[in-house]
Amino acid sequence: MQRSPYDTAAALLPLVGGPANITSVAHCMTRLRLGLSDPSLVEGEAVRAVPGVLGVVTDGDTLQVVIGPGAVVTVTAEFQQLLTTEKAAAAEQLAARGAELRAARVRRNATPLKTALRRIADVFVPLIPALIGCGVLAGLNGLLVNAGLLPSLTPALAAIASGFMALISVFVGYNTAKVFGGTPVLGGAVAAIVVYPGVAKVTAFGVALAPGQGGVLGALAAALLAVHVERWCRGRVPDALDVLLTPTVTVLVAGLATLYGLMYGAGLVSSAIGTAADWLLATTGPLAGLILGGLFLPLVMLGLHQALIPIHTTLIQQQGYTVLLPLLAMAGAGQVGAALAVYVRLRHDTSLRTTIRSALPAGLLGVGEPLIYGVSLPLGRPFLTACAGGAAGGAFVGFFAVLGDRVGATAIGPSGWALFPLLTGNRGPALAAAVYAGGLLTGYAVGFLATYVSFRGDPSST
């Protein structure tokens, strides 16, 4: 009998320290993300044992509970409802104690880089559903245009698919201010300058600006500056004038800095990212693919893969697709191959084989956490051989990039088989799909063979 989302949420709540220990609740495509006052109150093994939980990742004062696509949305909703109805009377006392422990833990474990990456991920993760939806529609529209079908519908599809990407900088600015402690709408207002057509009349460093110059990186920088300006104003402007002066000064100062510095600088960085990605694949394609495909699973395991979203988004804005995602997606192929090898090797382990059968469909669609936390990582060596499969698949795709056949994705989020509707490239979607399929098959095969040869299911093999 399938466990209901309410049952899963109700089982998790006491195991993560109760309502008073929760400071924030959010979710991405597969994970329930909980901010905690006191991470030491979490019963990790008990959380992992809850039916429906596929894995647990601890990142400072954030707990990520891997539940899987679709299910995580309903479980999160039930969890939030439980929080509003079951706040304990001792919440203040526990929160005060947790704040002390949290501060001590942050001093011990948090690094500036790790904190910055986590916050940047928090800015972009909420945008993924729109990126996926618009990317799929853009791919569909491209197929219709190339086939000469439904000419009366394709302009409408193009408008629907492109509208979000045209204004994504505004959403990035809004989320940036929200995540970093500013007023969200002020962050959005400053970031809107980046895409405003009127910036073409402004000259910076002797060059006329172009609408959209700097893209999401410019919007991110503009909103971060707005947050700092707003905080400076809040501490100095009298309360009676705060509602008038603080927003005005924030938008003015951050806006001028955006026009006369940040857009130009972010534009240079964005161009450098695109140039570097093209050069990397054109000159060192197999090596680049091997490294990226081989190292992506550890990033997913640590939850740090979300930090790559700004780079993907920048490439999509510049070139119409990101050439990095198909390479990174090969990690999932290696994971699937390794899991199949374990399934064949451990014929008498009914429990593990059941886990593999239930997790394989998600793995084929590019959701790797169920296989990572349920199969390869607990066993040890299969995690390494899965990385080897991902490296081989990445090298395959990178080899064709050296030959001039670039494979890209028009949106981010899906991988595995789910990425096929989003594939395109410099020589058309058909060739891109063929190269990508070859990479997947290579990843499956190498991941399977490396695991089958090296893993025997005994303690010495883990």
Task: List the defining traits of the structure above.
two-stranded antiparallel sheet, 462 residues, alpha+beta, four-stranded antiparallel beta sheet, Gyrase A, domain 2
Quickly describe the structure.
The protein has helices spanning 5-15, 44-49, 71-85, 91-109, 112-124, 128-147, 154-166, 168-179, 184-195, 215-234, 239-302, 309-319, 324-328, 330-345, 350-364, 369-379, 381-402, 429-454, and strands at 22-27, 31-36, 55-59, 62-66, 203-204, 207-208, 407-409, 423-425. The protein has 462 residues and is an alpha+beta fold.
Describe, in plain words, how this protein is organized in 3D:
With 462 residues, this protein is of the alpha+beta class. Among the domains are: 5-110, Glucose permease domain IIB (Gyrase A, domain 2), CATH 3.30.1360.60; 126-276, no CATH class. It is built from 18 helices and eight strands. It has helices at 5-15, 44-49, 71-85, 91-109, 112-124, 128-147, 154-166, 168-179, 184-195, 215-234, 239-302, 309-319, 324-328, 330-345, 350-364, 369-379, 381-402, 429-454, and strands at residues 22-27, 31-36, 55-59, 62-66, 203-204, 207-208, 407-409, 423-425. Strand 5 and strand 6 form a beta hairpin. Helix 11 crosses helix 12 (309-319) and helix 16 (369-379) packs across helix 17. The chain is globular and about 70 Å long. It starts with a helix and ends in an 8-residue tail after the last helix.
